[in-house]
Specification:
The complex is a heterodimer of chains A (111) and B (112). Chain A is built from no helices and 11 strands. Chain A is mainly beta and 111 residues long. With 112 residues, chain B is mostly beta strands.
Protein backbone atom coordinates (compact mmCIF):
# COMPACT_ATOMS: atom_id res chain seq x y z
CA UNK A 1 0.00 0.00 0.00
CA UNK A 2 1.12 3.51 -0.70
CA UNK A 3 -1.25 5.56 1.45
CA UNK A 4 0.49 8.57 2.95
CA UNK A 5 -1.72 10.69 5.17
CA UNK A 6 -1.36 14.13 6.67
CA UNK A 7 -3.69 16.54 8.42
CA UNK A 8 -4.75 19.33 6.09
CA UNK A 9 -4.20 22.46 8.17
CA UNK A 10 -2.00 23.76 10.97
CA UNK A 11 -1.84 27.26 12.46
CA UNK A 12 0.89 28.42 14.81
CA UNK A 13 2.04 31.72 16.24
CA UNK A 14 5.31 33.21 15.07
CA UNK A 15 8.15 32.04 17.31
CA UNK A 16 6.38 28.86 18.40
CA UNK A 17 7.32 25.39 17.21
CA UNK A 18 5.32 23.67 14.49
CA UNK A 19 4.89 19.93 14.30
CA UNK A 20 3.58 18.42 11.09
CA UNK A 21 2.65 14.75 11.17
CA UNK A 22 2.48 12.07 8.53
CA UNK A 23 1.57 8.39 8.54
CA UNK A 24 2.45 5.89 5.86
CA UNK A 25 1.49 2.30 5.26
CA UNK A 26 4.29 0.65 3.31
CA UNK A 27 6.89 -0.97 5.53
CA UNK A 28 9.38 -1.28 2.68
CA UNK A 29 10.04 2.46 2.60
CA UNK A 30 13.64 3.33 1.90
CA UNK A 31 13.67 7.10 2.24
CA UNK A 32 11.09 9.49 3.69
CA UNK A 33 11.06 13.11 2.62
CA UNK A 34 9.66 16.47 3.57
CA UNK A 35 8.97 19.06 0.89
CA UNK A 36 7.80 22.66 1.07
CA UNK A 37 5.64 24.27 -1.59
CA UNK A 38 5.01 28.00 -1.66
CA UNK A 39 2.20 29.51 -3.75
CA UNK A 40 2.81 29.18 -7.47
CA UNK A 41 6.08 27.33 -6.98
CA UNK A 42 7.43 23.83 -7.35
CA UNK A 43 8.51 21.57 -4.52
CA UNK A 44 11.54 22.33 -2.42
CA UNK A 45 13.18 19.38 -0.70
CA UNK A 46 13.64 20.36 2.94
CA UNK A 47 15.08 17.21 4.40
CA UNK A 48 14.94 13.45 4.16
CA UNK A 49 15.59 10.52 6.45
CA UNK A 50 16.71 7.03 5.63
CA UNK A 51 14.36 4.38 6.94
CA UNK A 52 16.92 2.91 9.35
CA UNK A 53 17.26 6.22 11.23
CA UNK A 54 15.08 7.49 14.07
CA UNK A 55 15.89 11.16 14.01
CA UNK A 56 17.58 13.77 11.90
CA UNK A 57 18.23 17.38 12.78
CA UNK A 58 19.07 20.13 10.34
CA UNK A 59 19.16 23.65 11.78
CA UNK A 60 15.55 24.52 12.71
CA UNK A 61 14.19 21.25 11.33
CA UNK A 62 13.91 17.99 13.25
CA UNK A 63 12.55 14.84 11.65
CA UNK A 64 11.38 11.97 13.83
CA UNK A 65 10.61 8.54 12.43
CA UNK A 66 8.70 5.87 14.33
CA UNK A 67 8.94 2.79 12.14
CA UNK A 68 6.81 0.67 14.41
CA UNK A 69 3.86 3.06 14.10
CA UNK A 70 4.82 4.16 10.56
CA UNK A 71 4.73 7.75 11.75
CA UNK A 72 6.90 10.60 10.53
CA UNK A 73 6.96 14.12 11.90
CA UNK A 74 8.62 17.40 11.00
CA UNK A 75 9.26 19.91 13.75
CA UNK A 76 10.09 23.48 12.80
CA UNK A 77 11.59 25.44 15.68
CA UNK A 78 11.02 29.18 16.03
CA UNK A 79 8.49 29.23 13.20
CA UNK A 80 8.60 32.36 11.05
CA UNK A 81 6.05 33.91 8.70
CA UNK A 82 8.24 32.79 5.81
CA UNK A 83 7.55 29.21 6.83
CA UNK A 84 3.90 29.59 5.76
CA UNK A 85 3.47 27.09 2.93
CA UNK A 86 2.17 23.62 2.17
CA UNK A 87 4.34 20.80 3.50
CA UNK A 88 4.32 17.37 1.88
CA UNK A 89 5.74 14.17 3.20
CA UNK A 90 6.68 11.49 0.70
CA UNK A 91 8.09 8.01 0.72
CA UNK A 92 10.12 6.02 -1.73
CA UNK A 93 9.68 2.27 -1.67
CA UNK A 94 12.28 -0.35 -2.35
CA UNK A 95 12.07 -1.43 -5.97
CA UNK A 96 9.80 1.41 -7.09
CA UNK A 97 11.34 4.34 -8.86
CA UNK A 98 8.81 6.91 -7.75
CA UNK A 99 7.65 8.87 -4.73
CA UNK A 100 4.29 8.57 -3.00
CA UNK A 101 3.15 11.88 -1.61
CA UNK A 102 0.87 12.79 1.23
CA UNK A 103 -2.02 15.19 0.82
CA UNK A 104 -0.02 18.13 2.15
CA UNK A 105 -0.43 20.22 5.31
CA UNK A 106 -1.05 23.92 4.92
CA UNK A 107 0.92 25.71 7.63
CA UNK A 108 -0.20 29.22 8.50
CA UNK A 109 2.04 31.28 10.74
CA UNK A 110 0.24 34.03 12.62
CA UNK A 111 2.37 37.14 13.31
CA UNK B 1 24.73 24.62 -10.72
CA UNK B 2 21.59 25.52 -12.66
CA UNK B 3 18.40 24.02 -11.29
CA UNK B 4 15.76 21.95 -13.00
CA UNK B 5 14.11 23.96 -15.75
CA UNK B 6 10.71 23.38 -17.26
CA UNK B 7 9.26 24.98 -20.35
CA UNK B 8 6.86 26.46 -20.93
CA UNK B 9 5.79 27.71 -17.51
CA UNK B 10 2.19 28.32 -18.54
CA UNK B 11 0.11 26.85 -21.30
CA UNK B 12 -3.50 27.16 -22.38
CA UNK B 13 -4.92 24.53 -24.73
CA UNK B 14 -8.37 23.48 -25.86
CA UNK B 15 -9.94 20.08 -25.52
CA UNK B 16 -8.81 17.59 -28.10
CA UNK B 17 -5.44 19.24 -28.72
CA UNK B 18 -2.13 17.75 -27.75
CA UNK B 19 0.69 19.28 -25.74
CA UNK B 20 4.40 18.66 -25.19
CA UNK B 21 6.16 19.77 -22.01
CA UNK B 22 9.90 19.88 -21.57
CA UNK B 23 12.18 19.32 -18.60
CA UNK B 24 15.93 19.85 -18.37
CA UNK B 25 17.43 18.16 -15.32
CA UNK B 26 20.39 19.32 -13.32
CA UNK B 27 23.61 18.64 -15.20
CA UNK B 28 24.81 15.12 -14.51
CA UNK B 29 21.46 13.83 -13.27
CA UNK B 30 20.24 10.85 -15.23
CA UNK B 31 16.89 10.24 -13.54
CA UNK B 32 13.90 12.39 -14.44
CA UNK B 33 10.45 11.89 -12.95
CA UNK B 34 7.16 13.55 -13.83
CA UNK B 35 4.26 14.28 -11.50
CA UNK B 36 0.82 15.75 -11.95
CA UNK B 37 -0.55 18.00 -9.21
CA UNK B 38 -4.25 18.83 -8.98
CA UNK B 39 -6.33 20.15 -6.08
CA UNK B 40 -8.49 17.04 -6.09
CA UNK B 41 -5.94 14.26 -6.57
CA UNK B 42 -2.82 15.86 -5.11
CA UNK B 43 0.57 14.79 -6.42
CA UNK B 44 0.48 11.74 -8.61
CA UNK B 45 3.36 9.98 -10.29
CA UNK B 46 3.35 9.84 -14.09
CA UNK B 47 6.63 8.19 -15.10
CA UNK B 48 10.33 8.01 -14.42
CA UNK B 49 13.18 7.81 -16.91
CA UNK B 50 16.76 6.82 -16.37
CA UNK B 51 19.32 6.85 -19.16
CA UNK B 52 16.61 7.09 -21.83
CA UNK B 53 14.66 4.12 -20.46
CA UNK B 54 11.30 4.32 -18.74
CA UNK B 55 11.78 2.51 -15.46
CA UNK B 56 8.36 3.03 -13.95
CA UNK B 57 4.96 4.30 -14.96
CA UNK B 58 2.05 5.50 -12.89
CA UNK B 59 -1.61 4.79 -13.35
CA UNK B 60 -2.42 7.22 -16.15
CA UNK B 61 -4.07 6.52 -19.50
CA UNK B 62 -2.02 5.96 -22.63
CA UNK B 63 -2.68 9.55 -23.72
CA UNK B 64 0.16 10.45 -21.38
CA UNK B 65 3.57 9.54 -22.73
CA UNK B 66 7.13 10.60 -22.26
CA UNK B 67 10.65 10.17 -23.44
CA UNK B 68 14.17 11.01 -22.43
CA UNK B 69 17.00 12.06 -24.70
CA UNK B 70 20.67 11.17 -24.54
CA UNK B 71 21.42 14.47 -22.77
CA UNK B 72 18.88 13.48 -20.06
CA UNK B 73 16.37 16.14 -21.10
CA UNK B 74 12.87 14.77 -20.97
CA UNK B 75 9.58 15.54 -22.62
CA UNK B 76 6.08 14.49 -21.78
CA UNK B 77 3.23 14.52 -24.23
CA UNK B 78 -0.49 14.52 -23.60
CA UNK B 79 -2.71 13.80 -26.56
CA UNK B 80 -6.44 14.43 -26.94
CA UNK B 81 -6.53 16.81 -24.01
CA UNK B 82 -9.43 16.67 -21.57
CA UNK B 83 -10.59 19.32 -19.11
CA UNK B 84 -9.38 17.10 -16.27
CA UNK B 85 -5.82 17.31 -17.55
CA UNK B 86 -5.62 20.87 -16.24
CA UNK B 87 -2.90 20.69 -13.63
CA UNK B 88 0.56 21.68 -12.56
CA UNK B 89 3.05 19.27 -14.11
CA UNK B 90 6.23 18.92 -12.14
CA UNK B 91 9.45 17.29 -13.11
CA UNK B 92 12.20 16.20 -10.74
CA UNK B 93 15.74 15.10 -11.31
CA UNK B 94 18.03 12.94 -9.21
CA UNK B 95 21.51 11.59 -9.40
CA UNK B 96 21.23 8.49 -7.27
CA UNK B 97 18.97 6.49 -5.04
CA UNK B 98 17.22 9.43 -3.45
CA UNK B 99 14.48 10.32 -5.90
CA UNK B 100 12.98 13.72 -6.43
CA UNK B 101 15.80 15.67 -4.92
CA UNK B 102 15.32 18.65 -7.14
CA UNK B 103 12.01 19.76 -8.57
CA UNK B 104 11.45 22.24 -11.31
CA UNK B 105 8.97 25.13 -10.98
CA UNK B 106 6.36 23.24 -12.98
CA UNK B 107 4.29 23.87 -16.08
CA UNK B 108 0.75 25.00 -15.40
CA UNK B 109 -1.51 23.58 -18.09
CA UNK B 110 -5.04 24.88 -18.48
CA UNK B 111 -7.39 23.03 -20.79
CA UNK B 112 -10.49 24.95 -21.90
Amino acid sequence: GEDVEQSLFLSVREGDSSVINCTYTDSSSTYLYWYKQEPGAGLQLLTYIFSNMDMKQDQRLTVLLNKKDKHLSLRIADTQTGDSAIYFCAESISGANNLFFGTGTRLTVIP
Amino acid sequence: KAGVTQTPRYLIKTRGQQVTLSCSPISGHRSVSWYQQTPGQGLQFLFEYFSETQRNKGNFPGRFSGRQFSNSRSEMNVSTLELGDSALYLCASSSGQRLGEYFGPGTRLTVT
